Amino acid sequence: MEQRTRALVASAFIGVIFLLVQLGALALVQPFEAAGYQAVEDPSDPTNTVVYVAAILVATGLMLLAIKLNVDQLIRAFVVFAGVYLSWYVFSVVVPDVVTYGEFNVIAVAAALALGAALLLYPEWYVIDASGVVMGAGAAGLFGISFGLLPAILLLAVLAIYDAISVYGTEHMLTLASGVMDLKVPVVLVVPLTLSYSFLSAETPDPTGEVEGEASANGGEPASADEMESAETVDEDPEADPMDRDALFIGLGDAVIPTVLVASAAFFAPSSVPTVGLLGLVVPLTALAAMVGTFVGLAVLLRMVLKGRAHAGLPLLNGGVIGGYLVGALASGLPLLEALGVAGFL
Predict the structure, then answer these.
(1) Alpha-carbon torsion 305, 172, 256, 94, what sign?
(2) What is residue 228's DSSP assignment?
(3) What is the pLDDT of residues 4-59, one digit of tens each?
């Protein structure tokens, strides 16, 4: 019972991480837009989705190649660089321009470099998670102002299908997860179940294995950080408790991708949509409903993971956020075609 309670507390902590990413993205969309960080000229163009999905496929292929060639440290360097880059975007609009050098906010640059140094020198679980929240909020905010409602919905739908295929079909996401786990970078968020847990010294399981309960929600990331027994040993112990683990893992992408629609729904909400106050933020009802949908999907996903089964995360999470957004849009009086972002094309 104690282990089950710990697992439930850890699940709640995962929910807190998701909430921080979403609140951070909502807080950043307007400052990002004011700073001119919108990445595309026409956010309503559906081809933006095609470009981004193609970039994901290329990046995935390159990472798999790096793992195959045993140069996976290149992946670590890339992720740390991405962390510094994304955090600079965040800190540049959050930290006041007290000290500047040319056009650069010196304190913001220093904070971003400090985040990168922490990831390189001491990637303990709380460093990974804190960095992941900053990176996730920044990425979701940037994509939220760059993807209109239709491109965002298309992006989430395509990535949900891709995640399911890559986990249950080709299983190449399991291979990728296996390769990046030991790199200790914020591709995967870590939530310990014990106070003594250390991500630095923990053995990480192989998510490509056939052991039930070995993979987590995010495309096969491990759901356990304790040293796994061999498949033969597990088969001999059918009563093994899937709760018997030292940590839960969930991919950063599982938090970021649904939040893109949350941020987009907030940024591109018509003026007729009612707003709600949320922890100091003014949030359109459509975005709030999308947040609720995310957590419904997350609750179902974590319930499955805690039973010891491997699952792709994005089908449930993206389905939840899209469903929640549409419910909020219809409740706000928006016609369905306008809510989907296709009215302007008809």
Answers:
(1) positive
(2) P
(3) 788 889 999 999 999 999 999 999 999 999 999 998 989 999 999 999 999 999 99
Domain ranges (residues) in the chain:
2-345
Query: For the chain, how many residues are written?
Result: 346
Closest by alpha carbon to 284, among 308, 315, 303, 261?
261
Question: Which residue carries 């847990």 as its tokens?
Answer: 197
Contacts of 103 (CB under 8 A, 6+ apart): none
Lowest-confidence pick of 76-80, 156-160, 198-202, 263-267:
198-202
Residue pair 181/115 in contact by the 8 Å Cβ criterion: no
Spatial CA neighbour of 21 closest among 132, 163, 178, 183: 132
Higher per-residue confidence, 134 vs 211: 134
Task: Summarize pLDDT for 137-181 with one digit per residue, the tens.
Answer: 999 999 999 999 999 999 999 999 999 998 888 877 877 877 787
The whole-model pTM stands at 0.87
Residue 139 CA to residue 157 CA, distance in Å, equals: 18
- What residues have CB less than 8 Å from 112, skipping those under 6 apart? 84, 85, 87, 88, 91
Q: Is the separation of the CB atoms in 174 and 167 below 8 Å? A: yes
Q: Which segments of 39-101 are extended strands (E)?
A: 100-101
